[in-house]
Each structure stands twice: as C-alpha cells, then as structure tokens.
Design a protein that fits this description.
single chain; alpha+beta; 3 domains; 13-stranded mixed beta sheet; 11 helices; globular
C-alpha cells in the first residue's frame, strides 16, 4: 500500500521498488538523521545488500533530481538504497559546522550499524558518493566498520590540503572563497521541510541560521598543511583502507589527481575510471562521451556485495579517456579521443617513459640541456588567469579554460618543435624550476599548452606552487631576494594526445587570478634555464586499448518537474580603459522549477564579480551574491548572502551578510566581518 511517505515505482526493473520518503535513524546522543530509502518490494522476505550515500545536500529537494533515477535503478536491481542527510542538514537534527568533522564520521559509523541491523538488509553495505560523499566514503572506509564491504568514490580527494577546493600547491584558491559563500547560503542555514519535521521546522531553521559559520575564516587560519587538513586526508595512512575501492572522476574536474594516487598507494582491491567529464558521475554530465557508469557500479556491487562474478575485477586497473587536441572553448559537448587501459598503475612494463624537455633562453622547449647559465624573467599582469575557467567545473557550459593566447602574453613561454607524430601523455608532468625572485612571497604557475597550427592555444594541464613552500608545506620560509632555489612539483594528471602539426608549450606566470589569490607584492621571477625542465610521461599506445568498451548510459525514471525559468550560466571578462581594472563576472543560476511529487517550487542564483588592476595585488577583490528559495502555498522561505573579500600585503579581509525571509518578511540578519593574517601566502 502506498502512503504519503511511500511511492511505488514499477518500471522495467527486475524488482518493483517502494520509495520511503523519510526513515529516521537514531544516534546515541538522541539526534535523529533523516534518510530517504529505496527498497525492493520483496526485501523483507528476501533481504538485500544496502548502498549508503551520506551528504549534506538535502535529500528532500537538493539532490532529488539525481537521487531518484540513480537509486531507484540500483534498488530495482536488488539493493536497498539509503540517502542520508548529514547532521544539521536537510531534515536531520543538529548543527553542521564544518566539512568532514570527527562527529560526521562517528555519526556515519552509527548509520552503517543501523542499516546493517534492518530486517530488509543482509548486513552487507556499500557506500558511494560524489564530492563530499566521495570524501566521506574514503574516510569511513579508513575506519573499517565491519558491515562496509566496498565503496565507490567519485570526484573526491585523498589529500585535503593539496587537492581540495581550498589550496593548491600552498596557494589560496579563489574557489576557497566561492565554496565558503555557497556553504554559508546553500548548505548550512537552509530550513528543514515542515512536511517532514512538523511544527519544529522554524525552531530548527533559526538555530541553523544563528550557528552558521563563516568557514572562509577558519580555512584561512590554516594556510599551512597542518593537523586540520591532515584530518580526513586518507593519504596520511593509505593502509587504513582495506575494503575494495572503485574511484571514478573526470579530467575536467578539480579532483582528477586522487584517482592515480589511490590506485598507486592502496593495497586493497581497486579500480579506476577517468573520463573527459567535469564534476559528475560520468553517466549524467559532460564533456562527453558519457558511459554506462551505473552498469559499471552494478557490476561492482554485485561482485563485492552479492558474490556474483561479474568480471569487474578482470578489467584493467585503470580505464581512462585519452583526450585529443581540439579547439579551445568554454563548452565542449563531446571531446574527441578514445578510451585506453592500463592493467596496473603505476605502469611498470615500459609502456610509459619519462621524456625530459629543457627550457632555454630562446623560448624553446628542447630535448637538449642548455649548458650556459642564463635566465628568463617574467612579471605577469594580474589579470593573467581570467581565461582559466573554474577550478571545480560543474558542466555549466561556461567554465572550461578558453583560448590561452591572452594568458600566454603574460607568461614566459617555451615552445617545442612542430610534431610529426601523435604525442600521448598519461600521468602527471613534473616541472623543475631553478629560480630566483625579488620578493619574500611568490608563486609559480605552470601551464602545459597545446599550440594548434591556426595559432589557437589549449591548456592541457597546469600546476601551481607557493614558492615559500619549496622545502616544506608545514614550515614555509620567506624567500631571499636574488638567491637561487630549485623546486620540483607536479602538474595535474592528464591523459591527452597532441596531434601532428601541433606543438607543446610550457607557459610560466607569477599570478593566476582569480584561480589563485595573488602574492602580496608584484613579483619578478627569474628562471635559470641551465637546470629548468619538464618531465613528461609519454605513453605508447597498447593493442588492449581497443578492448575498452562501456555500455550506453541507463538510469531510472526522472523526477517529474515543471520548469518555470530555465538555467542560465554566463562568464564575461571586461577591461575598463578609464580605471585600468579588469573584471570577471560569473553568473550561474539553476533556474526555477517545481518538484511535482513534493509540490515544492525552488531555485538558486549566484553571481561572482572578480576585479583586479594589472599592477596592484592589493586591488584584487571578489564579491559573491547567492540567493535561494523554497515555496509552497502559504509558505515561502528565502536566503540571501552577499560576501566580499579583498586583501592587502599582510591580511585577508572578509565581509559577509546573511539574510533570511519567511513569506517575504525578514526574520534573520547577521553580518560577519573578519580579517586573517597572511602566512607566507
């Protein structure tokens, strides 16, 4: 029988599925977490394994459009799927005060125990998630709960300092501020649904608003790789993870590097799949080609949770999409290329060989080392980076890196010869710089570019380094003027084929705003070419590449919704000739729509404005506005956030305003104003 809390799905699945809108999971301290549960109809008489997804993004409305097709598909193939709101989010009790807290992990262990004890569960559990859910899948796996038999981690990281949205190579990411604004507006303070929690919804909402943190302040208080970042970074002890791991992501996501590291350093059974995608599972986003990721996941779950030999562990350890040279543009619907495979990672059979290419004073990238000691200098204008795209791309159609010609005009460039044959790269290029600078704090940003015969330039990959951390990320040191140092660091992992007629370019800049907040003072970087080089992992094509085949994407029934206003995304760079300022404006709106089965109208909008004068780091600033609302007849709530960040030579300054309205009347207003001292950044 179907009630208001249940929805029966009868499609083409092997099992009919009933969706339980809310089940309450009690914790030891009296807190209740809200779960949405998909169950095969015969699960009570024939218990099934369970799949847990545990994130703060509101199972009721925030992720519903993705959850229903995915989890109903798994459940229709014989699994219980449990989508849980983390403490303090969605309809769950409590407060959400930061990412990946020990409290979140302790709660997660109790959730796993609760699921395993249910009469519809066999006691065998898999855990999966994208982004936050990918993080905590790894983190809970490292705690080894007995019932957790396997995980799927998507678009996540094993290293919260070096490879998350906060810092890159010790440099402060612009997305650090963007994500803090999103958390302040969309994650922590949002109200629970009165239809689920009843009359206490407003009390819960006001408590969340009152205790919503300005996390950018906390994240900037940890500018070194300290214990704050080591917590939740499974790279601190890979051996803690013993259950099997399926890692999946995309080359155009911000989290592509963790997959090769996990494959290399874990000792448990593991496989990896990396597509051309951005921040998505691979069956539901771009750039294409998409794959039947759900079918791959089902093979994984059947193997580890049902003991069915699906052949998934006979697959190569790494299957990756080899992107080919293409025209640079913000939106690529289908990236040309092919799938390739590696039986083991890292490759030890000679299939990938390092190729050293040296930088020289003539602006050349050569296979021969320059024996003469000489330097090339660069002092980049601070708008270098306006064509970099976004760090964490969400397939909005506006956020891939565009033509790099303008970026290269503010960089020191070193060009290789025109290629006679295809050149294939798989892995992380490593740059070594013999350098000196004229300031105590400096950055080096290195891009590996693909220069086409028509002169257009695509970014293949890039990396950054806070040069104060050339010896230690835990104990940075100020640089001495004109003293020579040597630093080596990896660029982001990539799988890319440069076509004949093209040539490689290494482009080095001293700034990359707004991808990175700039150093305190304008920096002149000298690169000594007798010892500066890049090491490229050059791959030889394998016959087995042709055997990589995926099924076409398949998923469950979509969530019925009525679109009132379609999504809108745009990115515009402009220059004011009167003031000399550059401005980058980013608009990202989900549109407005009604989710029919819960009769809820909702939508969000975001605008970012980044400004800088080419010659003055102290003019770098960001203003981000974020608005969201939820609406039914006689009930409407709305949040409005406006955050501003700027800096001077010694300090980061942040101002933020959080407003909340009920039925178009103000009910909450709070202003944050804080400053954090710069620590070698």
């Amino acid at each position: 029988m179907t009630t208001n809390n249940e929805l029966t799905i009868r499609k083409t699945f092997p099992h009919a599925v009933t969706v339980h809108e809310t089940m309450w999971i009690p914790l030891d301290d009296g807190t209740r977490l809200a779960a949405r549960v998909w169950l095969p109809d015969d699960a009570i008489s024939q218990p099934v394994p369970a799949i847990l997804e545990y994130v703060p993004y509101r199972r009721r409305d925030g992720t519903r459009l993705r959850d229903d097709p995915m989890h109903s598909w798994f459940s229709g193939h014989g699994y219980a799927c449990v989508r849980v709101d983390i403490r303090g989010s969605g309809d769950s009790d409590g407060r959400l005060l930061d990412e990946y807290l020990l409290e979140e992990q302790t709660d997660g262990l109790q959730v796993i125990d609760w699921i395993a004890a249910q009469p519809w569960c066999t006691g065998r559990i898999g855990m999966m998630g994208i982004s936050w859910g990918g993080f905590n899948s790894l983190q809970l796996a490292a705690l080894r709960p007995e019932a957790l038999h396997a995980i799927i981690t998507s678009c996540s990281t094993d290293d919260r300092y070096n490879d998350d949205i906060h810092y890159m190579g010790g440099c402060v990411l612009g997305d650090n501020f963007s994500w803090a604004t999103t958390f302040l507006s969309r994650v922590s303070p949002r109200a629970p649904d009165p239809a689920i929690v009843g009359e206490r919804w407003k009390e819960m909402w006001l408590e969340r608003l009152e205790h919503t943190p300005l996390l950018i302040e906390r994240w900037l208080q940890h500018q070194r790789r300290d214990d704050y970042w080591k917590h939740g970074s499974v790279c601190e002890s890979y051996s803690d993870i013993q259950c099997p791991v399926f890692a999946i992501g995309g080359w155009n996501d911000g989290y592509q590097n963790a997959i090769p590291r996990l494959l290399e350093n874990l000792s448990c059974p593991r496989i990896g799949v990396i597509g051309a995608w951005s921040h998505c599972y691979g069956f539901d986003g771009g750039p294409g080609p998409t794959i039947g990721a759900l079918q791959e996941f089902l093979r994984w779950w059947d193997y580890w949770l049902k003991d069915i030999d699906t052949g998934i562990m006979n697959e190569p350890m790494l299957r990756a999409y080899m992107e080919e040279s293409t025209q640079p543009t913000a939106l690529i619907e289908h990236w040309p290329g092919r799938w390739i495979s590696e039986p083991r990672w890292p490759v030890t059979d000679g299939g990938i060989e390092p190729r050293l290419m040296w930088l020289n004073t003539k602006g050349e990238l050569s296979d021969t080392q320059n024996k003469k000691s000489a330097s090339v200098t660069i002092k980049s204008p601070l708008q270098t980076g306006f064509f970099a795209g976004e760090w964490c791309r969400h397939n909005t159609g506006t956020d891939l890196a565009t033509d790099q010609r303008y970026e290269d005009s503010g960089s020191a460039c070193f060009d290789g010869n025109v290629l006679d044959n295809r050149l294939e790269i798989l892995g992380a290029p490593v740059i070594t710089l013999d350098f000196s600078v004229n300031q105590p704090v400096a950055q080096a940003i290195v891009r590996l570019n693909d220069v086409a015969p028509d002169g257009s330039i695509s970014r293949i990959t890039w990396g950054a380094k806070n040069l104060c951390q050339h010896q230690s990320q835990e104990n940075p040191e100020h640089l001495k003027e004109n003293q020579r140092y040597t630093v080596s660091f990896k660029l982001n992992d990539i799988c890319y084929s440069v076509l004949p007629g093209h040539r490689l370019r290494v482009a080095i800049s001293t700034s990359y705003f707004p991808m990175l907040w700039p150093a305190p003072r304008p920096v002149t970087l000298s690169i000594w070419t007798d010892n500066s080089r890049i090491e490229l992992p050059i791959r030889t094509p394998r016959q087995s590449d042709e055997l990589v085949v995926f099924e076409m994407p398949e998923e469950g029934p979509p969530v019925p919704r009525k679109i009132i206003e379609p999504p809108h995304n745009q990115q515009t760079a402009s220059f004011d000739a009167d003031t000399g300022f550059w401005e980058l404006t980013i608009t990202a709106n989900t549109g407005r729509y009604v989710i029919d089965d819960i009769n809820l109208e909702t939508g969000t909008s975001r605008q970012e404005i980044w400004k800088v004068h080419p010659d003055s780091p102290e003019t770098a600033s960001a203003e981000i506005s974020f608005n969201s609302y939820s609406k039914r007849v006689h009930w409407k709530i709305a949040h409005s956030v406006k955050c501003l960040m700027h800096l001077d030579a010694n300090t980061y300054h942040i101002n933020a305003l959080l407003d909340a309205n009920e039925n178009d009347k103000p009910i909450f207003n709070h202003q944050f104003k804080t400053s954090v001292a710069r620590d070698h950044t």
